Protein: FH1/FH2 domain-containing protein 3
Amino acid sequence: FRLVVKTSLKLLLVFVEYTESNAALLIKAVNTVDTKGGKKLWSNVMEILEEKDGVDTELLVFAMTLINKTLAALPDQDPYYDMVDCLEEQGIEATAQRHLSRKGTDLDLVEQFNIYEMTLRHEDGDNEAQLPPCGRKDRRRASVGGTNEKRGVERRRSRRHSLQNNTDHTSSPASPSSPYPHSSSYLPFGGQRVEDISER
Structure:
């Protein structure tokens, strides 16, 4: 079973990487299948990340890489945030923190969670967040509402960003709004560095 899932994820990665327009096709397929099955969108990938069938590092890396590659290929913010919001509603942030707090977490998995987090922070308007090399630098801004000038200045942000703004603006040290040293070796989740994890 795991070999079939692993091979499927590899093939989907090849499909998404082949041409950018394939990411939109994959999202359309996911929407069709999950809606027909009465599931939350991207719940199959989230089940892999939540390890409901046991630990398999390669599966985790492939699943998170597929998420990042699909998001990176999207040229517009609307489909980007639609997908991110589905993942956030299913607890991808907590899942990432759980993986990264473990001893001996695979460095490829660490990198993929880091890419997801830094890209999301960049899209949400955190100018200090360094966009990973694989992140899309020229995503077209989403239209938030009407055509008047005031609406034109506004921008869409993630569900996580909106929820944080609705709180009392106090943030824990592990929250994405906290100030971090922004280097490639620094982890936004839990304030850990890649070096710390690999030395455990």
Remarks:
- The chain has ten helices and no strands.
- The CA atoms of residues 104 and 197 lie 6 Å apart.
